[in-house]
Amino acid sequence: MKTFIKTIALSSLLTCSAAAMADQSDYKLMVIETATAPQPLEQSFNSCALNVKSKNYAQAEEVCTKAIALLKDADAPRFKVRQLTSYALSNRGVARLKANNETAALADLYEANQMSNSTMVSHNLNRAKEELSL
After folding, report:
1. Cβ–Cβ under 8 Å, residues 63 and 91
2. Which UniProt keywords apply (predicted)?
3. CA-to-CA distance for 77 and 91, rounded, in angstroms?
4. Whose CA is closest to 12, among 21, 81, 96, 77?
5. How confident is the model over 65-117, as pLDDT tens digits?
6. Which of 6, 87, 104, 113 is the most exposed place for a label (fewest CB within 10 A)?
């Protein structure tokens, strides 16, 4: 599974590379960029981020959950599945946070942070803790 992760700053319509960070007050949403036709996993993963951007938080949570389920059965190296699962959990956490489901959002963000040593995931967790004054 060859994938490239990109981030979407929640307040910006522009995507940037995973190495580049947008304004630190934004949440980071990860998407999969693929050179081939998107598979169900990529479609669910990317649809999650797009629904968050569109403020369709219930739909975002649903498709993020689908992406997480698809990752459990993914035929890819374990480290890659773990990393993508972390990103999907982080995206779902942002969706839940924006839908005012803070407890579930924090659970997702903490789990995502434990799974991956990603600056984007840790940024989302820290940003949520600041927003919620934790």
Report:
1. no
2. Signal
3. 21
4. 21
5. 999 999 998 888 888 889 999 999 999 999 999 999 999 999 999 999 999 88
6. 104
